[in-house]
Amino acid sequence: MAPQTRIYNNTGTLARAAAERIALIAEHALSARGRFTICLAGGSTPLSTYEILALPEYGSMIDWNQTHVFFGDERCVPPTDRESNYRAARETLLSHVPVPLGNIHRIHGEIDPSAAAENYEREMRDFFQKRLNQAKPRFDVVLLGMGADGHTASLFPGTPILREKEKWVAAHRVEKLGAWRVSMTFPALNAAANILVLVSGKDKAETLARVFNDPPRPDFLPVQGIKPEDGSLIWLLDEAAHSKLEPPPSLGQDGGQLP
Ligand code: 6PG
Q1: 148 lines ligand 1 (CB under 6 A)
Q2: φ, ψ at 150 (rounded to 5°)
Q3: 36, 83, 108, 178: which is deepest, by most CB within 10 A?
Q4: Mean pLDDT calculated for residue range 56-71
Q5: How far is CA 5 from the centre of its chain?
């Protein structure tokens, strides 16, 4: 399935569109299987989407009681740390919706990184392979962002984790950050039914143009390694991030997305 691109006037319309799309995926999953599995992205871009998803208007589409929340990556910090992706998701979404605590599967950034990665892999395999009898972690939706260097989740350029083919989760020290990260790997992320990559801001425009136009070299631009095996990939961009790319024919006069 070819990747799709949707462009929005600004971060607000992007966040709303992402929330709408996630809610529709949830509604479909819940009616088809009585369960919704979502893998949240870290960073700041998705936070507005999380706040919108917490609004009561989505309560009728998303049965949080039947929803399982995972994280694509985590910084190796306590869950209360301002750097924690879990903390950010809890503050914007998870503490505002009735998702059972047992359905929130956080990466334990506060413990030894390798142990955190092993524990999370075990938790994921228990959930998908034992409980759901699925060979792979086929999330209904995986949310991702992209850094200005082309990283996604905590898959950074030039790092060995990019070549991981078996593990679903790995820990590594990211030299450029001087910090440890725990991240899902390409095999885990690319098993998803739907992947939404949310990118906003002019600072990402140059890299996004390279991601779309340069030959695929995930070692240099890791987000190019996001290719769902049997699922959809949709890029949700604001105009600033899209500004170095050719406008698609469907772009409306006001820059909004035509139906
Ligand atoms: C993280 C994310 C990371 C993020 C990008 C973009 O833990 O930081 O997983 O991959 O999505 O760095 O971050 P912004 O949305 O803050 O630009």
Answers
A1: no
A2: 85, 5
A3: 36
A4: 96
A5: 16
Counting from 1 in the atom list of ligand 1, the atom nearest the Cα of 204 is: 17
Which numbered atom of ligand 1 lies nearest the CA of 145? Answer: 11
The dihedrals phi and psi of 222, each to the nearest 5 degrees, come to: -55, -35
Structure tokens at 102: 């047992």
Say if ligand 1 is within 6 A of residue 73 CB.
yes
Choice from 73, 180, 182 to test ligand 1 binding pocket (greatest atom count within 8 A of CB): 73
Task: Indicate whether residue 153 lines ligand 1 (CB < 6 A).
Answer: yes
Encoding tokens for residue 255?
Answer: 């820059």
Q: Residue 141: what pLDDT? A: 98
Has residue 115 got a pLDDT over 80?
A: yes
Rounded Cα–Cα distance for residues 28 and 140 (Å): 9
**Rounded to a whole number, what is the distance in angstroms from the first to the last CA of the chain?**
19
> CA geometry: angle at 222 spanning 173 and 206, to 5°?
115
Cβ–ligand 1 distance for 181 under 6 Å, the answer no
259 confidence band (pLDDT: 50, 70, 90): very low
d(CA 118, CA 126): 12
